[in-house]
Amino acid sequence: xxxxxxxxxxxxxxxxxxxxxxxxxxxxxxxxxxxxxxxxxxxxxxxxxxxxxxxxxxxxxxxxxxxxxxxxxxxxxxxxxxxxxxxxxxxxxxxxxxxxxxxxxxxxxxxxxxxxxxxxxxxxxxxxxxxxxxxxxxxxxxxxxxxxxxxxxxxxxxxxxxxxxxxxxxxxxxxxxxxx
Length: 180
What we know:
By secondary structure, the protein is an alpha+beta fold.
């Protein structure tokens, strides 16, 4: 992994939550309307990090962004698919941090045995669409006016990326992140 990228730990959660706070309070990028409290966010982190990579980008001890994988859907047959999420500090965008985070995340997800990654993007959002398409994501769905936030209706697009193009006839279960 890049020297500035690390697996997130409990001590990182307040900084991660501070980054997320901006997207909840000041944008429609997250459809949450209230920032989760530290306890709820810690529980969310623990649930994700138990199975999936949850990465942070640190520079001079400061977290400037994070990315993680997560369960795509509840049904068992979806277990080879993963949703991906990335958030950067609003003042750290445009520096290549997102590309570093995603490069490392996708490498880990491939090693875990996931076949397909999905990203849901509130639209319009040229930066998010741009980074996803940079990595080869293709738009596969568009939900019109699916979320209401900040006094207006928002669309959501879904993008798909094949992580492992060679599919085994009988795939092995994906590894949990600590088995890598």
